[in-house]
């Protein structure tokens, strides 16, 4: 039987589940030797802020939360200064803080998440998706490549330089 995946806004009741997923992701990055997310960010306050601002989204599988992401429209100050060049200067969705629930890890859930984000972007008439990741987050780099994102250059975020990617949706 095929599982049903849905993207929905996160609610405050989801906070502890999401925070648990982010903690798992922080630990996985550490195990992988990555420097990303190793300095106290993101934290539970980040999750609460995402939910309060309407940025928090969850991908559910048959109603169970599998992946978390913050989707932010047109607003990432760090992206105004890029060493390189974006593909477009229209409206965009920024994808931040992607975290997978451990039991769903390795099942292609982040690829499914990006499919849903592309549908979301298209349905809102938004031109592109922009995303950044650490140079040593190999899993995410592979996913972005497989989903047809273009490497645009580097951006400076609070905890260091990030590889920046964009995909034109409409």
What does this protein structure show overall?
This protein starts with a strand and ends with a strand. The chain is of the alpha+beta class. Strands 1-2-3-5-6-8-7-4 form an eight-stranded mixed beta sheet. β7 (150-157) and β8 (160-168) form a beta hairpin. It has a single domain (5-168), classed as 3-Layer(aba) Sandwich (Aminopeptidase), CATH 3.40.630.30. The longest helix has 17 residues, at 15-31. 30% of the residues lie in helices and 33% in strands. It is globular and about 40 Å long. One of its GO terms (molecular function) is acyltransferase activity, transferring groups other than amino-acyl groups. It is an enzyme of class 2 (transferase).
Would you summarize the structure shown here?
The chain has 170 residues and is of the alpha+beta class. It is built from four helices and eight strands; from the N terminus they run E-H-H-E-E-E-E-H-E-H-E-E.
Overall geometry comes to globular
Structural class: alpha+beta
Whole-number average pLDDT? 94
Strand order of the largest sheet: 1-2-3-5-6-8-7-4
Q: How many H/I helical runs? A: 4
Strand tally: 8
- Measured as a percent range, the helix fraction is 25-40%
Query: In total, how many domains does the architecture comprise?
Result: 1
Poorly predicted ranges = none
Q: What does the largest sheet look like?
A: 8 strands, mixed
CATH fold node name: Aminopeptidase
Task: Spell out the CATH superfamily.
Answer: Gcn5-related N-acetyltransferase (GNAT)
**C-alpha Rg (nearest Å):** 15 Å
Q: Under the CATH scheme, which architecture would be assigned?
A: 3-Layer(aba) Sandwich
SSE series: EHHEEEEHEHEE
CATH class: Alpha Beta
Report the end-to-end length measured between terminal Cα atoms: 33 Å
Strand content: 25-35%
InterPro entries: Acyl_CoA_acyltransferase, GNAT_dom
Pfam family, one: Acetyltransf_1
Protein name: GCN5 family acetyltransferase
EC number: 2.3.-.-
